[in-house]
Write a structure and sequence with these properties.
Chain A: This is CoA transferase subunit B. The complex is a heterodimer of chains A (226) and B (240). With 226 residues, chain A is α/β, with parallel strands linked by helices. Chain A is 13% helix and 26% strand. In chain A, strands 1, 2, 3, 4, 5, 8, 10, 11, 12, 13 and 14 form an eleven-stranded mixed β-sheet that branches. The longest helix of chain A is centred in the first third of the chain and has 10 residues, at 7-16. Chain B contains seven helices and eleven strands. Classes of the chains: A alpha/beta (226), B alpha/beta (240).
């Protein structure tokens, strides 16, 4: 069975759906990769929870200013037109519905849109950060993820078994094997890898994949897995 | 009126045992490291302040600042959103030994609780955490068909803040993304103590650029060329 798209290709596919003029929050880690594949000719403004709009890539090593970081505490640069603001304003942008898109990672996504992405086990020190805030407010909440865990368990499930981050919040999932929308409590298959059969894809998925209209091919250019 | 205090030791001299202290900063950005280390110095000399409740986004990093306070036993509780860092040993060890209490609060809810504390709003409703384990035991309500969790304001006895420029009335500006929680915490504490990199006379800050108006500030101390937590951690510094 195919490994499917690598993380860079999943991030590329998600970036194609970010429209010109969008205000976007990318979750810490893998979702940050989406910014690398911004579509030429579109202007996207990135929001980070600690209080910056309009940040750019990391500075050159040695050029970091550690008062200017993102939510993952990595050094950032500013693009022209950037702004700073305090934390209550920053989360007003989130909760107040001002962001167009938030893209987050996931341990599990359920067919009703429930998301589990903040706590995998019970032994580690619990840490939530902005995860539970970010799932509320963005006009579209997308998840990018491998289709299955490293040991082959489905990440798209009927019901989450990990602790929930938010209820009914996810609207679209980009995986290594498929693009799935969540509507009316079910997974709607929009795109799948051209070389995987529907039966094989369903077998890798923990809940029923519904089809409503055409299923397009999920394609991405060859990209190094950074 | 002059809110300037001569020395950093004087600035933290009246913080008692058992105090609740908001500490500005997000990770190392905006962390008032000199004020924190002045508290540690006092604790070493006098045994106070201890049994503190600390409010910060994080629970310290490495062997300096908040992590050092936790490591040497000054804190009994921390209210934060993300008690992990590149070197979280100090908090993790105390937490797993049951020697420090953790109140975990989603980051935006933490900010809004502090803002509410400063604005005189005892409770509010937010969609954040509804239906999750962090909402257990909290009142909920439905508005226009959507579910919300009731959260309470958060106030403190003291706030320790790092700002860039301050005047003797307490007007403040901040540096880059280092403002984060600080303008909120200035509003929510009974006594707000600020270290500023540069002290100016009233009129020295353009009123159009004031971020925290002086009404929210009680005391300022000048710390020129302040240290930066992240830089100290990367240099392997320790204050334990």
């Amino acid at each position: 069975m195919t490994d499917g798209l690598n993380n860079a290709q999943i991030a590329w596919r998600a970036a194609q759906d970010i429209e010109d003029g969008a205000y976007v929050n990318l979750g810490i880690g893998f979702p940050e990769m989406v910014a690398s594949y911004e579509v030429e000719g579109r202007h996207v403004t990135y929001h980070t929870e600690n209080g910056v709009l309009g940040f750019g890539p990391a500075p050159e090593p040695g050029e970091e200013d550690w008062d200017m970081i993102n939510a993952g505490k990595k050094a950032i640069t500013l693009k022209p037109g950037a702004s700073f603001f305090h934390h209550a304003d920053s989360f007003a942008m989130v909760r107040g519905g001002h962001l167009d898109v938030a893209i987050l990672g996931a341990y599990q996504v359920a067919q009703n849109g429930d998301l589990a992405n903040w706590r995998a086990g019970s032994r580690a020190v619990p840490a939530v950060g902005g995860a539970m805030d970010l799932v509320h407010g963005a006009k579209r909440l997308a998840v990018i993820t491998t289709h299955c865990t490293k040991d082959g368990k489905p990440k798209l499930v009927e019901e989450c078994t990990f602790p929930l981050t938010g209820l009914g919040c996810v609207t679209r999932v980009y995986t290594s094997h498929a693009l799935v929308d969540i509507e009316d409590g079910r997974f709607l298959l929009r795109e799948k890898l051209p070389d995987i059969s529907l039966d094989d894809l369903q077998a890798m998925t923990g809940a029923k994949l519904h089809i409503d209209g055409d299923v397009a091919g999920l394609n991405a250019p060859v990209l190094d897995h950074a | 009126m002059n809110k300037k205090i001569a020395s950093i030791a004087d600035a933290v001299a009246d913080i008692p045992d058992g105090a609740t202290i908001m500490i500005g900063g997000f990770g190392g950005s905006g962390n008032p490291i000199e004020l924190i280390h002045a508290m540690i110095d006092r604790f070493r000399e006098t045994g106070s302040p201890k049994d503190l409740t600390l409010i910060n986004n994080n629970a310290g990093n490495g062997r300096i600042g908040i992590a050092a306070m936790i490591d040497i036993g000054m804190a009994r509780k921390i209210i934060c959103s993300f008690p992990r860092s590149s070197d979280p040993r100090a908090f993790t060890e105390k937490y797993q030994a049951g020697e420090i209490e953790l109140e975990l609060v989603p980051q935006g809810t933490l900010a809004e609780r502090i803002r509410a504390g400063g604005a005189g709003i005892p409770a509010f409703y937010t969609p954040t955490s509804y239906g999750t384990e962090l909402a257990e035991g909290k009142p909920t309500a439905t508005f226009d068909g959507k579910n919300y969790v009731q959260e309470r304001w958060l106030k403190a006895d003291f706030a320790l803040i790092k700002a860039e420029v301050g005047d003797s009335y307490g007007n403040l500006t901040y540096r880059l993304a280092a403002r984060n929680f600080s303008p909120l915490m200035c509003m929510a504490a009974d006594r707000t103590i600020v270290q500023v990199s540069s002290f100016v006379e009233p009129g020295g800050i353009d009123p159009e650029t004031v971020v925290t108006p002086g009404i929210f500030v009680d005391a300022l101390v000048e710390v020129q060329k302040p240290q930066q937590e992240e830089v100290l951690i990367r240099a392997g510094e320790s204050y334990v």
